[in-house]
Design brief:
about 25% strand, about 30% helix, 3-stranded mixed beta sheet, 2 domains, alpha+beta, disordered N terminus, single chain, 8-stranded antiparallel beta sheet, about 260 residues, disordered C terminus, elongated
Length: about 260
């Protein structure tokens, strides 16, 4: 009697194990089918590069929406709608049209694009405007840097520039060594830029920065354009208004 009583639970466990196996197979099959359907239906458009000759596409940077012409985007990997950490653009000056297609040009990382924009070859220095849109992050807005950061590093004596501009060199040993702060003498907030000086065959370049909410817009251009800084500022306003309706308003908080 004792032997028969001990054998019964073993038989039940075997039967239960046989019943579990079909359920496990069905669950595995359902999971595989679900994964396949999710893969097929998952939206893939943000990863696909958009052709250069299509109309402006919506791009969001730091929560700010911009309408960007794909032909102006320098890196192929950035040429798609949706959220970006940054986008690098180029425009012809003074037409503000995107450059012609260069199919032989390889894609390059953002750091390399910055380097090229800051030290453009003399052949391109007079007709290209380089624009980078990125998030401000923990960095102060440009107007706040003008008011509270730059004065700590500037020399005391300014020199006169073209058409009401003034130029103050940054002191040696500072983060901006070798650059000048160029600004409207009577009202620096109206227009200002940080500029390098010409070094032999390398022309000077300038960086003009603006902010829009949590986004920062950096414009790089040849220093020689400052001879007509009013026209340059107006061109910047027109271009940024095309990228974002508010971007051309009142120099993006500069008059705050």
């Amino acid at each position: 009697m004792t032997v028969h009583a001990a054998a019964r639970p073993t038989t039940r466990r075997k039967a239960g194990g046989l019943l579990i196996l079909p359920f496990a197979l069905v669950a595995t099959l359902v999971a595989a089918v679900g994964s396949f359907v999710a893969y097929v239906l998952w939206p893939t458009w943000p990863n696909a590069a958009i052709p250069r000759d299509v109309p402006a596409i919506p791009i969001t940077i730091a929560g700010v929406l911009f309408n960007v012409p794909p032909a102006a985007i320098r890196a192929t990997v950035q040429r798609h709608p949706g959220a970006h950490e940054r986008v690098d653009l180029a425009f012809l000056w003074p037409s503000l049209a995107p450059p012609q297609t260069d199919t032989k040009r390889p894609d390059k990382p953002a750091a390399k694009l910055d380097e090229e924009a800051s030290a453009a070859a003399p052949a391109n220095a007079s007709d290209r405007l380089f624009v980078t849109i990125s998030g401000l992050g923990a960095t102060l807005a440009p107007i706040e840097r003008l008011r509270s950061i730059y004065p700590r590093y500037l020399e005391a004596q300014a020199t006169a520039g073209p058409d009401g501009l003034a130029s103050l060199p940054f002191r040696g040993g500072t983060p901006y060594q070798g650059e000048d702060l160029v600004y409207v003498a009577e009202k620096p907030e109206q227009f200002f830029a940080r500029c390098t000086r010409r070094m032999r065959a390398v022309p000077g370049t300038c960086i003009h920065e603006r902010s829009l909410d949590a986004a920062e817009i950096t414009l790089r251009f040849p220093r020689e354009w400052l001879d007509d800084w009013r026209g340059v500022a107006g061109g910047f306003d027109r271009l940024l208004a095309e990228l974002h309706p508010r971007a051309g308003d009142a120099r993006l908080k500069i008059n705050d």
